Amino acid sequence: MKSFADYLVETRQTFDYRIKIAGDVDKDTINELEKKLQQFDVVKMTDVKTTPVMKTLPDFPDMENDRCTHFDVTFNYPATDPQIKQIAKLLNLDPNRMIIQQRDYADKLDAERARYEAQPNPVLGADYQKNTQEQEELKADYSADPDQHDVVVKNEYRSDFTVAGGKTPKAKTTSDYPEQTKSPITGTNKIPNPYKM
Hints:
Largest sheet: 5 strands, antiparallel
Distance between the termini: 97 Å
Number of helices: 5
Helix content: 25-40%
Oligomer: single chain
Structural class: alpha+beta
Radius of gyration: 37 Å
């Protein structure tokens, strides 16, 4: 039978993040950031990596001709995006040039980007594919004049049918009744006489 300590070790959870900063960050600032992040009990921190200069950064679409500095960090305690940005702000880093992501999410984004870039003909910015024969036939049906029932789609809803039992008479509304000059409530419009009460 397992001891309580074994169960405690098995249930221990770590929190993995990827921190991305637009632009170059010197080693001293990264070291200071790592020291400040110790409040979340850093388990490990990967080496800092820097991308080459790119026309547009995928995570920072507003910034052009810059590079991205990123590293992974694992904590024993959870941290929120505003907490880490506040720490970075204390080190004179711009929090608007910083993104904190769950590492699993960041890995999925990177895999999706790599898959998109590996496509021989990316969909974005490419011409539409030509219609198949079936699409061309349907296009002819759907683009026809809706008043021509013989040309339009075969199962289109049509309103030219008769209901079993014949047509119902038109309903009367209050506008169809003649105008009245007398009150519908008779005898209530008398002025009360205060002397007779």
